[in-house]
């Protein structure tokens, strides 16, 4: 009998399973509203033109080679990534109070944050928002945190933020609890705090001496402006909070499979940086040892060149604007069809997703009858909607809501 007999299956990873079923489906009308990736109005993945341009520059540069990068990654990428998060005028950067590390996507960034806080600060308790990207709990559990608990975030009654619940749960947390927050485009509820609400949240984080880990995966894709979307990061920095930023470059650069992220750790005291770096290097050495070049070179080329940077910002805006247009078109159609319920949240929610409020039988009906794939909890990726399929999807949602 094999050593590996009887392992059983791990739980299905829903978005990848949806993808697999979507590709196997032969219906010409099929629509994949599941996976969180940008699509253009033809429903195709979009390689940003500025990314193409930077790739050509990288590939034609004969001075580059394939030697190992330093363990912490490409310096010109790490610095530019951190500047993107904290702003070019950041006092934290000027005072050398931030350690930046190139990671394997946003996922690697979160994992490194979890490992560092657990192994080196011996933290064991993390709070995640109730309803969130499932990997938040997965990563911290896999890292060995014994307490992975939830703070209130979503109010199903108002289909909005449960600010009172959130603040109360943070108030009740013990000192040095790790708190994962979404910088913008909260993935699953598509609902972000307003600047005023962020001020209240940051004040409690500071007063209760909690340790925020800011998941920054969708910068620019909410407002179309990368600075505006970074508001909570800059607020935390200006309030003197010690915190971590787990950045992903998958969505806003369309570099999904290049696996590019950055972990920025902000300290009150620049004299701690060298020891922090040394400890992080040892953790990384045991996991991925050194990060890959390509994505980092491309992003560094763009972020460090004034005109390419402007082109990238314009292309981020194109993506954000297309998402907003699709929200408007879907909302108009549901209102015109008189689909039962209040669909205003389709317009007011932010980022790539709409948390529709559809029930599980309604979701199943959309898939079985209309070949429309979406997560069980009724979250849809607005980018997968196009001017060509929005009528079809709206009618299908209408029928699902009225019959199921
Ligand atoms: C909230 C959130 N955090 C992190 C990630 C991970 O991003 P990456 O693909 O860069 O690992 C995702 C990806 O969907 C996400 O939605």
UniProtKB/TrEMBL annotation:
**Taxonomic lineage of the native organism:** Eukaryota, Metazoa, Spiralia, Lophotrochozoa, Mollusca
Q: What is this protein called?
A: Aspartate aminotransferase
- Molecular function as annotated in GO: L-aspartate:2-oxoglutarate aminotransferase activity; pyridoxal phosphate binding
Q: How does it assemble?
A: Homodimer.
Q: Which family does the record claim for this protein?
A: Belongs to the class-I pyridoxal-phosphate-dependent aminotransferase family.
Residues covered by the Aminotransferase class I/classII large domain: 29-397
Name the cofactor(s).
Answer: pyridoxal 5'-phosphate
CDD domains, sorted: AAT_like
Q: Share an example GO biological-process annotation for this protein.
A: aspartate biosynthetic process
- Catalysed transformations (reactions): L-aspartate + 2-oxoglutarate = oxaloacetate + L-glutamate
Q: Which InterPro entries has this protein been placed in?
A: Aminotransferase_I/II_large, Asp_trans, NHTrfase_class1_PyrdxlP-BS, PyrdxlP-dep_Trfase, PyrdxlP-dep_Trfase_major, PyrdxlP-dep_Trfase_small
Alphabetical keyword list:
Aminotransferase, Pyridoxal phosphate, Transferase
Q: What is its EC number?
A: 2.6.1.1
Q: Can you name a GO cellular component term?
A: cytosol
One Pfam annotation, family name?
Answer: Aminotran_1_2
Q: Which PANTHER family match?
A: ASPARTATE AMINOTRANSFERASE, GLUTAMATE OXALOACETATE TRANSAMINASE 1, ISOFORM B
Additional notes on this entry:
In eukaryotes there are cytoplasmic, mitochondrial and chloroplastic isozymes.
């Amino acid at each position: 009998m094999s050593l590996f007999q009887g392992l059983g299956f791990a739980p299905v990873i829903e978005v990848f399973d949806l993808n697999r079923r979507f590709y196997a489906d032969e219906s010409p009308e099929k629509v994949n509203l599941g996976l969180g990736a940008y699509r253009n109005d033809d429903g195709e993945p979009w390689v940003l033109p500025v990314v193409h341009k930077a790739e050509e520059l990288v590939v034609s540069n004969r001075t580059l080679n394939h030697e190992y990068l330093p363990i912490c990654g490409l310096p010109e990428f790490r610095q530019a990534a951190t500047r993107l998060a904290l702003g070019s005028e950041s006092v934290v950067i000027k005072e050398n109070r931030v350690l930046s590390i190139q990671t394997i996507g946003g996922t690697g960034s979160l994992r490194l944050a979890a490992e560092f806080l657990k192994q080196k600060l011996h933290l064991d308790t993390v709070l995640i928002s109730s309803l969130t990207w499932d990997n938040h709990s997965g990563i911290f559990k896999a890292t060995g945190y014994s307490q992975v608990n939830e703070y209130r975030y979503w109010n199903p009654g108002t289909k909005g933020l449960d600010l009172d619940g959130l603040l109360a749960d943070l108030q009740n947390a013990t000192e040095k609890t790790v708190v994962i927050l979404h910088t913008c485009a909260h993935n699953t509820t598509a609902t972000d705090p307003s600047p005023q609400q962020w001020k209240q949240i940051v004040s409690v984080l500071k007063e209760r001496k909690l340790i925020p880990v800011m998941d920054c995966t969708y910068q620019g894709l909410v407002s179309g402006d990368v600075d505006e979307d970074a508001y909570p990061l800059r607020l935390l920095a200006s309030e003197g909070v010690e915190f971590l930023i787990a950045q992903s470059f998958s969505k806003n650069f369309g570099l999904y499979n290049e696996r590019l992220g950055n972990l920025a750790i902000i300290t009150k005291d620049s004299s701690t940086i060298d020891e922090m770096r040394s400890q992080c290097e040892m953790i990384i050495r045991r996991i991925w040892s050194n990060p890959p070049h390509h994505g980092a070179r491309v992003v560094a080329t763009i972020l460090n060149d004034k005109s390419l940077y402007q082109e990238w910002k314009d292309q981020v805006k194109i993506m954000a604007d297309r998402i907003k247009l699709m929200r408007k078109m879907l909302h108009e159609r549901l209102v015109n069809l008189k689909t039962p319920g209040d669909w205003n949240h389709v317009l007011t929610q932010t980022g790539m997703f709409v948390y529709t409020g559809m029930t599980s039988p309604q979701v199943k009906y959309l898939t079985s009858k209309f070949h429309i794939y979406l997560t069980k909890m009724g979250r849809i990726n607005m980018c997968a909607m196009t001017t060509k399929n929005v009528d079809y999807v709206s009618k299908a949602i209408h029928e699902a809501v009225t019959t199921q």
